[in-house]
């Protein structure tokens, strides 16, 4: 079983068990549908997605007797229909030199690791890539990115001293990347959400200075979310959308005891592209987000 499937299966055993017991030997009536809605909400799918799925069941299967497998397959189809429109890759525009990706998100969600994984993929595709260690206050964060740079063969722009201005660093890095003809510039940022005003100011300043050199930058603003935080991830999207023009999501830690259901909630509520999912701690553990696979994993189907 793949790591994603493994993680999803563990996380949603509860969902599939309760769905199964819900429908075993009975008709799909109002009471069963109400229980289904509650089950979906407790599995982090959120109210809008849960309602949409239940309505789908009501329309097509109300009053019928259904087997466990039919219920699972139907549930997977309804979930896949919600996920399909947001399952989009993060395109690197061929005429940008560099294509600038601003990576944002709360501390610990996996920003730095996701940057390393992306760097690894771009290098494998033969694209030159550089990292900007924009989380300048945390010395360990800078060091972590430097190590990933060495491992993946990506240049790293580090601050001259801890706490140096992230915007100034980003400005210099973009200048250097332009001169070097670097194809992709991945900009790491701080994630101190407990000081929201200061973080917003810092992120906006980074965007401003990037635009001073390239009006179209950043070309992607990737918000990294940790799936294990469940509904907190939904709140994080709201907060970060206020701060910067988020263009897409990366959802990490779907290999562990992840609550993958939140991805469905995110899709239903925001409609932002889900570009990729993290399934481990090494540079190889990044996957494209596949709606059908994900939906089937979530309900425990192979
Ligand atoms: N299991 C697992 N761990 C991850 C994943 N992505 C990141 N991590 C771990 O989560 C922790 C925080 O990641 P980091 O990239 O430093 O987060 P940041 O503070 O947002 O930069 C580290 O221990 C990473 O190894 C993932 O997809 N799966
Ligand atoms: Mg970091």
Helix/strand order: HHHHEHEHEHEHEHEHEEH
CATH topology of the largest domain: Rossmann fold
* Number of discrete helical segments: 11
General form: elongated
Which architecture of the largest domain does the CATH hierarchy give at level 2? Answer: 3-Layer(aba) Sandwich
Question: Order of strands across the widest beta sheet?
Answer: 3-2-4-1-5-6-7-8
- List unreliable stretches of 5+ residues: none
Helix content: 40-55%
Q: What is the topology?
A:
Layout: H1 3-23, H2 30-42, H3 47-61, H4 68-83, E1 99-104, H5 111-124, E2 129-132, H6 139-152, E3 155-157, H7 166-180, E4 184-187, H8 196-213, E5 220-226, H9 232-243, E6 248-252, H10 261-270, E7 274-278, E8 286-288, H11 291-298
Parallel strand pairs: 1-4, 1-5, 2-3, 2-4, 5-6, 6-7
Antiparallel strand pairs: 7-8
Helix pairs in contact: 1-2, 1-4, 1-11, 2-3, 3-4, 3-10, 4-11, 5-6, 7-8
Bound molecules: guanosine-5'-diphosphate and magnesium ion.
């Amino acid at each position: 079983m793949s790591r994603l499937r493994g993680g999803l299966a563990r996380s949603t055993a509860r969902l599939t068990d309760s769905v199964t017991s819900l429908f075993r030997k009975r008709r799909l009536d109002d009471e069963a549908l109400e229980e289904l809605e509650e089950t979906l909400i407790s599995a982090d799918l959120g109210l809008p997605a849960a309602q949409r799925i239940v309505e789908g069941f009501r329309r097509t299967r109300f009053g019928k007797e259904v087997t466990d497998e039919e219920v699972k397959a139907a549930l997977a189809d309804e979930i896949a229909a919600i996920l399909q429109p947001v399952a989009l890759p993060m395109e690197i525009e061929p005429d940008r030199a560099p294509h600038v990706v601003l990576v944002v998100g709360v501390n610990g969600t996996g920003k730095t690791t996701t940057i390393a994984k992306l760097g690894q993929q771009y290098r494998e595709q033969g694209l030159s890539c550089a990292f900007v260690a924009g989380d300048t206050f945390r010395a360990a964060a800078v060091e972590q990115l430097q190590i990933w740079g060495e491992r993946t063969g990506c240049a790293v722009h580090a601050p001259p001293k801890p706490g140096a201005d992230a915007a100034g660093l980003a400005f210099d890095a973009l200048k250097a990347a332009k001169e070097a003809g670097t194809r992709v510039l991945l900009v790491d940022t701080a994630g101190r959400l407990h000081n929201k005003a200061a973080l917003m100011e810092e992120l906006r300043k980074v965007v401003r200075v990037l635009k001073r050199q390239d009006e179209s930058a950043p070309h992607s603003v990737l918000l990294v979310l940790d799936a294990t935080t469940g509904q907190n991830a939904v709140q994080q999207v709201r907060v970060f959308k206020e701060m910067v023009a988020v263009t897409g999501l990366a959802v990490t830690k779907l290999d562990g005891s992840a609550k993958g259901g939140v991805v469905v909630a995110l899709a239903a509520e925001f409609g932002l592209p889900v570009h990729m999912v993290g399934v481990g701690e090494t540079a190889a553990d990044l996957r494209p987000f596949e709606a059908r696979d994900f939906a089937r994993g979530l309900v425990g189907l192979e």
